[in-house]
Amino acid sequence: MSAGRIIAYLAAAILIFFGVLFLWGAFSPQGSPGWIIIGAISVGAGMALIWLSGRKRKAEAQQLVQKIELSGDVNLEKLTCRNCGGALSSENVRMLAGAPVVECPFCGTSYQLTEEPKW
Fold first, then answer.
1. From CA 102, how far away is CA 90, in angstroms rounded?
2. Is-contact 84 107, C-beta < 8 A?
3. Which secondary-structure segment (H or E) carries 1?
4. What is the pLDDT of residues 34-80, one digit of tens each?
5. pLDDT (tens digit, 9 = 90+) per residue, 20-46?
6. Cβ neighbour number for residue 42 with a 10 Å cutoff
7. Average pLDDT, stretch 100-114?
8. What are the boundaries of each domain within the chain?
9. H/E element holding 79?
10. Rounded to whole angstroms, how far apart are CA atoms 86 and 3?
11. Which stretches of 1-119 are DSSP H helices?
12. What is the spatial distance between Cα 92 and Cα 76, in angstroms, rounded to a whole number?
């Protein structure tokens, strides 16, 4: 639980406590009818604070775009599936935990791409 929620719950408890005291005191011999309004507002504000702090916020989706700039002339080879030999395109490659992963649309195989040495 975050510190903000704890503070909100404590503030709500204080508001409700004093609101109940004002409501209770309004019916005492020294009480005033105006204390009923103050008590009701205080209890309502405490309940609203509990409701607002208890709501879960929707997680904002983050999109990570990775762009790669290649220096010099680069010859791209045809990408084929290791399992079935089907032709793969760039849409079949995605980044997963920082590594390029290929998912074959033909056989459903998924594997990490590795770069072979050129020598």
1. 9
2. yes
3. none
4. 999 999 999 999 999 999 988 876 666 677 777 776 556 555 567 88
5. 999 999 999 888 889 999 999 999 999
6. 20
7. 86
8. 3-54, 79-112
9. strand 79-80
10. 54
11. 3-26, 34-54
12. 16
- Report the pLDDT value the prediction gives residue 8, as an integer from 0 to 100: 92
Cβ 85 vs Cβ 94: under 8 Å: no
The dihedral region occupied by 98, where left means phi > 0, alpha psi between -120 and 50, and beta the remainder, is left
pLDDT at site 19: 95
Specify the pLDDT at position 57: 66
Rounded Cα gap, residues 99 and 76, in angstroms: 19
Contact of 102 with 110, CB cutoff 8 Å:
yes
Closest CA to 11 of 48, 55, 56: 48
Q: Token pair of 53, please?
A: 């702090």
Q: What are the residues facing 110 on neighbouring strands?
A: 103
* 70 neighbors 58 (Cβ within 8 angstroms): no
| pLDDT score, position 12 | 96
